Amino acid sequence: MSQDLQIVAYCCEHCAYAAADLAGGLRLQYPPNVRVVLLPCTGKVDPLLILHALEEGADGVMVAGCLPGNCHYLKGNFSARRRVAYVQQLLKQIGLEAERVEMFHLSSAMGSRFAEIAKEMTERVAAVGPNPLRIPRKEREP
User: Fold this and answer.
1) Backbone angles phi and psi of 62, in degrees to 5
2) CA distances, 66 to each of 8, 105, 112, 122 (Å)
3) Cβ distance 72 to 41 under 8 Å?
4) What is the tens place of the pLDDT at every residue in 44-70?
5) pTM score, whole prediction
6) Torsion angles phi and psi, residue 63, rounded to 5
7) Correct CATH for 7-135 of 3.90.1200, 3.40.50, 3.40.1350, 2.40.30
8) Model pLDDT, residue 1
């Protein structure tokens, strides 16, 4: 079942994306259903971006940024944390599980931690089930 799940991981260029790259370089295993999206900073994450990923069929969304106090853009990761919390509240209000969206903090040297959170997020989303908003591909507009 977890193979069919789709997790989008919005990762900041300086830390989380580098950690994901390190995990790959070290050949650490993490679920192949996690799709990493490079961002200059998690401060770029807008609630609409997260909601759009869910609307398009993602079962879960990870936002992974720099460690608190180490953002290369000063406070981008704090802005992202507030926005993720806002999206979690919105999901509760519309009847979806808030566990589908989570914020994580990593340094570029935390490749093994990236692999762990990818597994953790996949397990968490598997526990709540597939996204009920997902429209099967054959039913989508061309």
Assistant:
1) -105, 140
2) 17, 5, 15, 21
3) yes
4) 899 999 999 999 999 999 999 999 888
5) 0.89
6) -120, 120
7) 3.40.50
8) 45
